[in-house]
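Write out this protein's structure.
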Amino acid sequence: MSIVTMKRLRLIALQSDREAIFNGLQRLGCVQVDESTPEPGDPLFETLRRPDASALSAARERLELGGQALELLKRYSGEKSGGLTPRPEVSAGQFFDDEAYARTEETARQLRALQQELTALTAEQAKLQNQRAALQPWLELDVPLDTASTQAVSALFGSIPAAGSLDELAEALGQAGQLCALTPAGKDAGLQYLFLLCHKSVEGEVMEVLQRWGFTRTVFRDLTGTAGDNDLRLQKALKENDAKAQALTEQIAGAGDQAQALKLFTDRARQEVRREEAKSRLWDTGESFFLSGWFPAEDEGRVKALLDSFPYAWEVTDPTEEEYPQVPVKLKNGKLTSPMSMVTEMYSLPAYGSVDPNPLMAPFFILFYGMMMADMGYGIVMMLVSILSIKLLKPKGPTVRHMMPLLGLCGVSTFIWGALTGGFFGDLLPQMAMLIDPNTTFTQMPALFSPLDDAVPVLIGSLILGVCQIFVGMAVSMYRKIKQGEVMAALCGEGAWYLVFVLAGVAAAGVISVNTALIAILILLVLTQGYGKKGLVGKLVGIGGSLYNNITGYFSDILSYSRLMALMLAGAVVAQVFNQLGAMTGNVVAFFIIAMIGNALNFALNVLGCYVHDMRLQCLEFFGRFYEDGGRAFQPLDISTQYVDIVNQ
């Protein structure tokens, strides 16, 4: 239960061995390859350069290719994601089968080609449909659309606003000259379409009339025959395209049996990307390469066993204190404390060389969460969800892997607190019993105390628990200071305030008088809170500042734990309100439905709300006492899959 000790690795090896070394390192999964920045004037780096990035680009392209193929199959083959289906297991031999990898890549490329063809057909369909829509107003016109003007006669296709009258337009054109003929074509919501023939001799007068009527000329490019002929041609083309698209869709759907192979391919490509990204941090000369990285000290034997099979020059060193900010952090915890990594990682990892907060936080986090939920029914649901998720889904991601066990542990605490307060989906059982038999004596669950009837004792208990956690944080802070040689700072800081709390508690218990306790506290604070300040004025200012900061700080922090009582009370009240609403129906079935819906809403709200408030207590009130954050997560080059699990690596 600590921060894992890290070793720095510096390695120089032959370029010809690079692939084998990196494949081995990835299977080991315990070495993080870091960027190495050359020092100015360092002769070691004068001839070095970054590796060619083409392999990384190719690996990313294959990963994208696999993702596109899977998305295509999901869309057209109806493949289900299988939310409660565990990931299939494959052997290392299957996963790293190069022939199968190449075959599946070809399948993925064929699927992408089909998708591109289908996309082109879709675009063509849209184009043909737009052409059909443009021809609709002209379908009644039995005139070829490629009718052209002659030396003597002008042929015009066009439109005028729908508000205009074609009869009045025809009359106006007749006044301009008798040598023209107007033929209506069709009409839509905004325009009227027409075809006009006129003699060249009156074309000028005719155009003046048309301009006054808002005439817009229409030009049909690459269309021959009437609008009806072209519409039939477009309908035929649309049917042919529909058939092609259907055939392509069926061809894509027919590749649904390749889904598992494509998932394997995508996971394999993901490993290539990770490996090539690690290689991009190297320096090389063309004949050799330089690697800088970190690995846990406990894995030194495994790393050395791998590298011993290659000609190399390497160096393993312990990080210096100046290097601590660059050292990656890996936490090593047991089954009870490792789920706390979810909280720690959401906040910030501890700095290397500091304290792992998980073992210190775990008992309080689980205890507080259960206290705020405090319902046996909710606890059972949480435990069942946790167990089923772990057994069926076998979560692998860092967040989910920690979240499900944490949910189960908090479920146990919730059940215990529910047993103490007599909560089982609120007061569901007593309400149901009274609904079935109004004369029943079962009017409440057996309980040690009730959050509704004993709110003040629950509040006091919440504050006492808060004091206990703050005391633990103060003790850790003292330990760190003493370990760093700051003994007097620890005694005059947290040590003095420990005594303040003890004296206050003893006085509250009546062991000594309040006046005696106050005098002792004042003398203690005057003697200790000026530590480290120079001069009388400095010590006085230090005492005043320390008193203000610590009194307000401790008071506000302890008071913040009142949320334990508040959420316990709120959850119990909401559950009882929904149960009473259901009981008002007088029907057992209606009662059960309303009560379960209300409790489901209450449960969903409290699962998240209690987590947020519990996390706030840890991150602010507890961590603020001793925690040094800013750690950089340890991210080794390993095999991390999304779709399959590898066995016998």
